[in-house]
Specification:
Blueprint: H1 12-54, H2 58-75, H3 80-88, H4 92-100, H5 102-108
Length: 109
């Protein structure tokens, strides 16, 4: 009877590489899940901001836009008005108009 070859133990380097690759795959999947969750939350916040904005009167819109621009400016002053305009679904010119409107600001205070 021919002898059966002895079972060769798996190569330790190959086992480490397999483990590392599996770790990278799991990390990538977790990052993708987090990005999906973050995008969903951002969309929900944007919808809430738009609903609040459209439910306000002129002076309320002005104060709301001013406060949002102030918050965005604390994070990054460059482009704050444009980001607020995108969030509210209005043009950047409209945000500027709301910020500069003395009538709207005086009516609300």
């Amino acid at each position: 009877m021919p002898k059966q070859p002895a079972s060769v133990p798996p190569d330790p380097l190959e086992q480490v590489m397999t483990t590392v690759v599996q770790g990278f795959k799991m990390t990538t999947e977790a990052i993708q899940d987090l990005r999906t969750q973050q995008a969903s939350l951002e969309q929900k916040l944007q919808q809430q901001a738009r609903a609040a904005y459209h439910g306000m009167t002129g002076s309320g819109k002005s104060r709301y836009a001013t406060e949002l621009v102030k918050i965005e400016s604390e994070h990054n002053p460059r482009g704050a008005q444009a980001r607020v305009a995108e969030t509210l679904g209005v043009t950047p010119g409209r945000v500027t108009q709301l910020l500069n409107s003395d009538k709207n600001r005086k009516n609300g205070k």
